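Preliminary data (for renewal application), zinc ion complex.
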Amino acid sequence: MSTSSSANLLTGKLLFPFIAPPNGGKGTQTQILSQRYNLPTFDMGASFRAIMKEGKDPVLKAELESYMNNGKLVPIETVVKVFKTNFEDLASQHPTSRGFILDGFPRNKEQADALSQLCTEWQAKLAKVIYLHVGMDVVKQRATGRRFCSKNARHVYNVNDTKLAPKVKKLEQNREIWFCDIDGAELIIRPDDESETVEKRLQEYKKETDPLIEYFKGTQQLVEINGEQDPSLVTQAIEAEIQPLLGLSPTS
Ligand SMILES: [Zn+2]
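Predicted structure:
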C-alpha cells in the first residue's frame, strides 16, 4: 500500500489506545465502546496470531520465526511493520468510522514513538490514551480466582468474586474443589492462572508499562480511569472522556 493512499485512508481519524493490566477489563470495555461509537478495535495480539497460526502472511511469519526460534526479541521495526500493515488493512475495511480503538499497541515507549510518527504520516490524531488503572492485588485476585468447567470451557467462574463464584464446593485434604453450576462437572485452574505464572506476567507488564504511562502523562494524552469500579461505571467514565472528542454531548 502506498503512503499516499494510506494517508488518505486515515486522515482525520481519531485513535484511542487502551492500556490495562492482564485481567484489567480491557476486553469488556473495548467491545462495548467499539459497538456503541462505531470505533473498530485493532487487536495487536490477534494480528500476531493470524500471522503465526493462520498463515496470513508467510513472509512475515518466516521473519518473526527467525527471531523467536533464536530466542531473540522481535525488533521494533518488525513489530511496527506488523502493526502498520494490519492496521491499514482494518482501516480500509471501515472507511466511514470516526476512529479506532487500539488494543495491544503501543506496549512500550519505543512503540509509542513509532505510533506518533505514523500518526503524522497518516494525518491521524492520537486522541486520548485510555488507561484502566487496576491495582496489582486486584488483578491477581481476578486471575487466580478464575475457574473453568472441565466439561465446557465456556462455563467460567471466579471464586474470588461473590457475583461470579460457583455455588457448590467441597473441601478435600484442605483443598477447595468447586463444581459447575450448570452441569456439576469439576472446575479446573488453567496453567496461565496459576499464582506464579500470574505474578510473572504482572511483573513483565509493569516493567514495560510504567514508562509508557509516564510518557503519555508527559504528552498530556493520558486519561486514567478507575478500573476497579463496576464495569458499567468504567464504561461511563470512558464515555465522558471520548464523547466530546467525537463531537457528542456527554450522557449522564
Ligand atoms: Zn459446566
